[in-house]
Amino acid sequence: MSLTIRGTAKARDQPSCNGFFCRMVCLPKCIFGGFSRVMGRRNQYQPSELQLQHPQLLHPPVVPEDWAFLVSFEQQYGTTHPFFYACSFMQALKIAEDEHKLMFMYLHSPEHPFTPSFCSRTLSSELVVQFLDANFVCWGAIADRGEGLQMAATLQPASFPFCAVIAPAAGNNIAVLQQMEGPIDPAELVEILQRTMEEQGSAFGTTVRGREEEHMRARIKEEERIKARAKEQEKLRADRQLREEQDAAYFVALQRDQEKENLRNARAQKPIEASNQTNYQNPRQMHREKQLGKPRQSSSVGEAQYKETITQGKDTQILIRFPGGERREHNFSCTDKILSIYRYIDSLGLPGIANYRLISSFPRRVYSFDQMGMTLKDAGLHPRASLFVELL
């Protein structure tokens, strides 16, 4: 237990030790253990009239620990007394903190010679009862049992009856603002309590209010953080929805462009097929021309006609390999599409090359009908590439 004496002042001169002072006291851990108990109030437990008339019928195991002081007091001195909370010390201290009041603690020693006069004259006085009920949270305990014994060992009173004004402090400490020991009359007790409230109660009230303001600021900050997080999540959802809508619109537009491109390709394929049919030669005639060393006029003418339609700006070189081992090299523009390569191959009028597709060797990639709308640059064929004609 750590004990620090802050200051000492003497009350009116009395035969007994009626001093009061302020000090910080570190509470033992056993005091905190009682905080989990259910708090009781006066209407929760009342001894029966038969028990009040015959105290010997009231066995200690029947009375809850929190009610021991109150039952003992009312059996001897009646029910006119300050409202003592029948709960643990820590619960009463929490109630005082919540109500912005100081705590009045009384340790009751039934066997002490000064106790009967103090209880019957002072604690049962209407002046004391009204003043304490209006300004303090009162808690009492028997000094030789339970939490009363623990508080007596902690505060170490020199005499009884023992009263103290308590306020919560930081950590496991309490502040003993005033301490009164021995007999004291009602007017003097009220005067000391009034002076304590005026001198030190405002400071501890400010501390409590400051703690509440700090909690309030923390709650406001947490609410603002929650609102900011919700706003950020809402913005993320809106952005994600916008991207999805944009992607959907893009795919729709891309599909329309693909359909238009397919339609143009179908229209352009008709004259090429007609040209291929015109330039077709049967295998026997081709074999005979090859033996005689005659050039293939149809292929050369078709290729020459295709070349005449090509303009300048060719920056992509494509090497085309045919199934028979033949190779053709042609220059295209990087903005030309895969369709341009198909048209070039069709313009050659090579026999047997009608239904086919283009494949790159490394990395292997197929350039078929779905890729005809891609530019050579987007297809990775710029500035130089090699393609193989695979018959279907």
UniProtKB/TrEMBL annotation:
<dbReference type="GO" id="GO:0043130">
    <property type="term" value="F:ubiquitin binding"/>
</dbReference>
<keyword id="KW-0833">Ubl conjugation pathway</keyword>
<dbReference type="InterPro" id="IPR050730">
    <property type="entry name" value="UBX_domain-protein"/>
</dbReference>
<dbReference type="InterPro" id="IPR006577">
    <property type="entry name" value="UAS"/>
</dbReference>
<dbReference type="Pfam" id="PF00789">
    <property type="entry name" value="UBX"/>
</dbReference>
<feature type="compositionally biased region" description="Polar residues">
    <location>
        <begin position="296"/>
        <end position="308"/>
    </location>
</feature>
<keyword id="KW-0175">Coiled coil</keyword>
<feature type="domain" description="UBX">
    <location>
        <begin position="311"/>
        <end position="389"/>
    </location>
</feature>
<dbReference type="InterPro" id="IPR049483">
    <property type="entry name" value="FAF1_2-like_UAS"/>
</dbReference>
<feature type="compositionally biased region" description="Polar residues">
    <location>
        <begin position="274"/>
        <end position="284"/>
    </location>
</feature>
<feature type="region of interest" description="Disordered">
    <location>
        <begin position="264"/>
        <end position="308"/>
    </location>
</feature>
<protein>
    <recommendedName>
        <fullName>UBX domain-containing protein</fullName>
    </recommendedName>
</protein>
<dbReference type="GO" id="GO:0005783">
    <property type="term" value="C:endoplasmic reticulum"/>
</dbReference>
<dbReference type="InterPro" id="IPR029071">
    <property type="entry name" value="Ubiquitin-like_domsf"/>
</dbReference>
<feature type="coiled-coil region">
    <location>
        <begin position="213"/>
        <end position="248"/>
    </location>
</feature>
<dbReference type="GO" id="GO:0036503">
    <property type="term" value="P:ERAD pathway"/>
</dbReference>
<dbReference type="InterPro" id="IPR036249">
    <property type="entry name" value="Thioredoxin-like_sf"/>
</dbReference>
<dbReference type="InterPro" id="IPR001012">
    <property type="entry name" value="UBX_dom"/>
</dbReference>
<dbReference type="Pfam" id="PF21021">
    <property type="entry name" value="FAF1"/>
</dbReference>
